[in-house]
Amino acid sequence: MKDDDIIEEFQSIGPYLESRIDGFETLRSVRKFDTGQSNPTYLLGADSGEYVLRAKPPGQLLKSAHQVDREFRVMHALADSAVPVPRMYHLAQDDNPLGRMFFVMAYLEGRIFWDPTLPGIDRTERQAIYDSMNATLADLHSVDPQAVGLGDFGPPGNYFARQTARWVKQYRASASAPSPAMERLIDWLLANLPEDDTATLVHGDFRLDNMIIAPDGPRVIAVLDWELATLGHPLADLAYQCMQWRLPHQGGMRGLGGIDRAALGLPTESEYVAAYCARRGIGKIGNWNFCLAFSFFRLAAILQGVVRRAEDGNASNPERARQMAQAIPVLAAMANDLTSGAGDA
Q1: Overall pTM surpassing 0.70 (yes/no)
Q2: Which of 134, 161, 245, 260 is least buried, going by the fewest C-beta atoms within 10 A?
Q3: Superfamily designation of domain 3-106
Q4: Among 210, 240, 256, 255, which residue's Cα sits nearest to residue 113?
Q5: C-alpha distance from residue 33 to each of 39, 54, 211 (Å)
C-alpha cells in the first residue's frame, strides 16, 4: 500500500474499520469527493471492495448541524422499505481515529446528474427519470414512521413553525451582515404560518443531485444526504424540489427557470405536483406559496451557513461556497415575490 493513496488523517483508520465492519479487508485508498458542502464524503478503496465514508466536518460547528448519526439512522431504518437507500455498515462516535463522528455505507455504481435538464439523455428517459423521482418521493411520504422505528425521529406536527424558528436562528448565527430582504421574508413567514398537524417522514433536501440513478435505466436506486430528515409536512419536500423549476439555470444555481421544458420532455411544475398528488391521493393543495417561500428561505439559510464555514476556513468545497454567497439575495428576492403574489407560477 502506498501512503500517497490515503489522505493523511485516514492513515490509522484501516484497522479500526477491519475490527468493526464484517468482511472489511485492507484499506488501500481514500479519495475525497469534490462535491457536497455540509458533510465531507470519501470513497474508500479496500481489498474487500469500495465503500463510502461520510463524516462531520472539522472545526467548531453550529448546534444541531451535521448530524451524521441521524443520516445513518434513517437510512438504516429504510433498508427494507420502498425507498431505495445504500446499505449501512457502521456508525462511529467521536472516539475513533478520525476524532469526529462518521458512518460507512455501501458504494453504488450509478449516475448522479447535476444538471436538471439531463443533457445527453433522450427525451423518453428524461421523462422516466423525473417520474421515478416523483414516485420515490411519494413512497417516502407513505412510509409509516412507527413501523420502521422512526416514530420519535422528530416532534409530531408544527413542522413549519419548528423549522422556521430553527432556520431563522441558524441564519442569524451565520450571517456576517444584516439583510433587509431576508428579515422581511422572515417577518412574513412568522406571520403566515399555516396550521400543521402532519407528521410523515421528510427528506429535507430532496432533489435530483441527491439521488443515484441506475447505470442501465431511468430509475432511482438510492436517495442520499439525509442530514435534514425528520418528521414533518410532506409538502415541504415537494415544494423544495419544485424550487428547481423556478430557479435560474445560470449563475451556478442549476434551475429550470427559462428552460423550454416541453422541448426537453420535462414535466411542468403543475404536472409534477399533480402526479405526486395522484400517487398519494391528495386533492387541492392549500398554502402552496407559503411552502415555496419557506423552501426558498430555508435554502438561503443553509447556504448562509456554508458561506460562513468558508469564511471560517471549514467549508468542504470553498470555491463553491463563495459562489453560493451570490445566490442568497436571489433566493430572498424570489421568496419575497411569492409573498406578494408576484412569483406565482
Answers
A1: yes
A2: 260
A3: Phosphorylase Kinase; domain 1 (3.30.200.20)
A4: 210
A5: 11, 10, 15
